[in-house]
Amino acid sequence: MKKATDIFSELGRRLANFGQSAADRSVVERACWENPWFLPHEIRRAVTAIRTSYLDPDKLASWIGSYDRPAALPAHRVLVIMAGNIPLVGFFDLLCVLMAGHRCQIKPSAKDTVLMEYVVGLLREIEPDIPVGFYDGETPVDAVIATGSDNANRYFRARYGGMKTLLRGNRHSVAVLRGDETQEQLAALADDMFAYSGLGCRNVSLLFVPQGTAVSLPPYETHPKYRNNYLHRRALRTLCRQEFTDAGSALLIRQPEFPQALSEISVIEYRTPQEAEQWLRAHDAELQCVVAAGIAHSRRVDFGEAQRPSLTDYPDAADVIEFLYTL
Question: Which CATH superfamily is domain 4-170 in?
Answer without folding.
Answer: Aldehyde Dehydrogenase; Chain A, domain 1 (3.40.605.10)
